[in-house]
Request: fold
Amino acid sequence: MKKALAIARWEFVEKVKTKAFIISLILTPIFMIGAGILPTLLVTKADTEPRIIGVIDQTNELAEIISQKLDEKYRLPDGAPNYIIRKIFMESNEDITAAKKVADQLVADGSIEGYLILPANIYNDTLFEYRSKNVGNIKLTERLNRTVRDIVVEKKLKSQGFDPQLIKRLVSEIEIKLVKISEKGEEESDFKSVFFSAYIFIMAIFILIITTGQLLVRSMVEEKSNRIIEVLMSSSSANDLLVGKILGLSALGFVQIGTWAIIGLALALKFGTIIISLSNALILLPYFILGYLFYAAIFVGMGAPLTTEQEAQQVTGYLVMILFIPLLLAMWIMQNPNSPIVSVLSYIPFLTPTMMAVRIPIQVPSLIEIISTLIVLVLSTITAMWIAAKIFRTAILSYGKRPNLKELWILIKSK
Amino acid sequence: MLKVENIRKEYATVVAVDDVSFEVKPGEIFGLLGPNGAGKTTTIRMILDIIKPDKGIILFDGKLIDDEIRNKIGYLPEERGLYRKNKLINTIVYFATLKGLSQSEARKRAYSLLGRLDLLSYAERKVEELSKGNQQKVQFIISIIHDPQIVILDEPFSGLDPVNQIVLKDLFMELKDNGKAIIFSTHMMEQAEKLSDKICLINKGKVVVDGTLSEVKSKFGQNHIHLEFDGDASFLKDIEVIDNLLLYENYAEFEIKDHQSLEKIIPIILQKLKIKKYEVVEPSLHSIFLQLVGGEKLIQMDSK
Reply:
C-alpha cells in the first residue's frame, strides 16, 4: 500500500504541475461561463442611458400616452426614464414620406434609436411599424409592442363603454409559473432548471471520466512505449501499480471538478440560482463514485494492451460515445420518466450513472429501484476491477498487436 | 543469496526458458550469457517477479519474493526507459521512493550519485534533453540508488562509449567489494570474461555450460592458439588438424587436435606468414561461446 501511495503521489504531483493541466483548469470554466452566461448577461443587461424613440403619430393622440406609460413602467437604475419619446414633425397627416425621410436621417446620425409609425387606423389594423438600424434588440421591441398593444386594447375597450377601472383589472398582465409536484410536496421549478441540473451532473461525471480515463490510458501507453513499466513492475506489484495510478489520477480529476464546482457554486450564489437540491446530490453521489470507478476499470482493461497513442485515442473515443447516450435521450426521458425502457436502461452499468443523473432531478426513482441499480453497479464495478487487474498484469508487458477477444478471455481465466 | 531452481517459461509458440538453475552469492559477479533470444531477459524478468515462471522456484535467502525483497533488488532493463517530460531529479527520487527510500534520503543520494557521474548540472533538466549515453547513466543510478543487495543489469554495456564503460566497470567493482551480488547479462563475451566470477551460458532456453570462469575454461581444452601476423592466412581453413578457427585480418584463434599435430603445422605457418605473436592459451570465452552456440550465430552477432 505504501508503494501504491508513492505511485499515486507521483502521478498526481507531476501532472498537477504541467502547463496543460493548469491551463485547462482555468480556461475551461472561463470558456463555459463565456459560452453559457455571457449572451444572457448581455441581453438582460439594463440600459444605463435613456434610449430615444421617435414616433410618427398619425393618430395624433397615442404618442403622449405611450410616453407616459413607458415612463411609468421602465426606469433606469438611477431613476431617470429608460425611454424618451420624441415626436417627428409631419407636414400633413396623410403623407408621411417627408417625415420618414427626416426620421431616417435622425436614425442614421444616431440621435434616435429607431422610430414607430402609428397609422391612423391602428384601432382596426393589426400592424404598426418599428424601424431601426438594429431590430434585434428583443427586449426593446417586446416592450414597445406590449405597451402599444395594451394602450390600443384599452382604448378600444373604452370606446365600447367599459369602465376604466374595470379595464385596468381586465388587461392586467398574466404570466406562467411552473410548479413541480414531488413526494415532499410542491416545489417551484421549471423546465430549464430541471434540464440544467441533470445536465450539470452529467457533465461533471463526463468530464471526470474522460479526463481521468484519458490520463490513465495515456500514462499506461507512455510507460509501455518508454519501457518504464519494467522498472515499475520490478519495484512494485501490479496491483499496487494499478491502485496507485487510479488513486493519483482520480485525485487529479477531483481537483479539477472540485475547482469548477466551487467556481460554479460561487456564481450560483451570486446570481441567486441554486438549481441542484442537496438531497438529489446526495442520492447521486454513490452513482457518481461507482460509475467513475467502473469506467476507470474499463479504461485500464482496454488501455493496458495498447501500444500507441493513436490506438488510445480510438478506444477513449468509443467510451465517450457510450457516455453521451443518456444526454441524447434526456428530452425523451423528461417526458416519459416512468417508461419501462428508462428503467431497463438504468440497469446497464455503462449507462446507470448518467441515466440516474437525468432521472433524479426530474423524478426521484423508487427506493427499490435505487437500491437495486446500486447493487448491480457495485457488482459490475467489482467485476470490472477484477478483470482489469488481470488484463493489466499481463497485457502491460505485451507489445505489438492488440489482443483479440479470445486472447483476452485466456488472460482473464489465467491465474 | 539468490537461488534459481529449475525454472521454465513457455510462450504460445516457444519454450523461452527451459529448466534453468543457478546460484549467486554475495560479492559475486555473475554473467548470464547467451546469444540474442536465448532467454536471458525472460530469466531476469522471472527473477524480478515481473513474470511468473510456469515451473521452478526462485528464492532469496531461502524466501520467495515480497515487497521487502523487491526493495533490495536493483534493476537495469535492457531497453532503457525514463519519463521524458519530467525533471531528472524528480524521476530519480520517484524510483528511489518506490524502493522504500524516504523523499529526503532519496534526494540526498540522487544528488551525490549525479555528482559522481558528472550529471549534476542536468539535475533540474528534463530527461529528454539528455543524450542517450547520459540517460543510460541515469538509469544506472536508478538501479543502485537504494543500496540494493542484488543488482541485475540486462546488457549494461550496450550503447556506452569506452569512457563510460570504464566508469561503469569501476562502479561494478565497487559494488562487488561492498559484498553485493551482481547479475549481468550480455552477449559481449570480452566484457563477461573480464568481469565475471561465474558464468552461465544459455542457448535456446537451456543451460549449455556454467561454473566459475576457470572451471568453464578448463573444460574446453588446452590446445588453444592465438596468432598475430602479417599476410594472407586463409590457408589455415584447409589444414585438417585445425578446429574452431576464428580468422580476422591480422589475428587468428584456433584449436588443434593434439600436440604432435602442432609440430607439423608450425613450419607451414612460419613459411607463409610473418608471425608477430604466438601464444598457446586457454580458450577465450568468445571462442567457447562460438563453439557451443554454433556458427550460424556468428553471422548474427557480427551484424549487430
Chain A is about 65% helix and 5% strand.
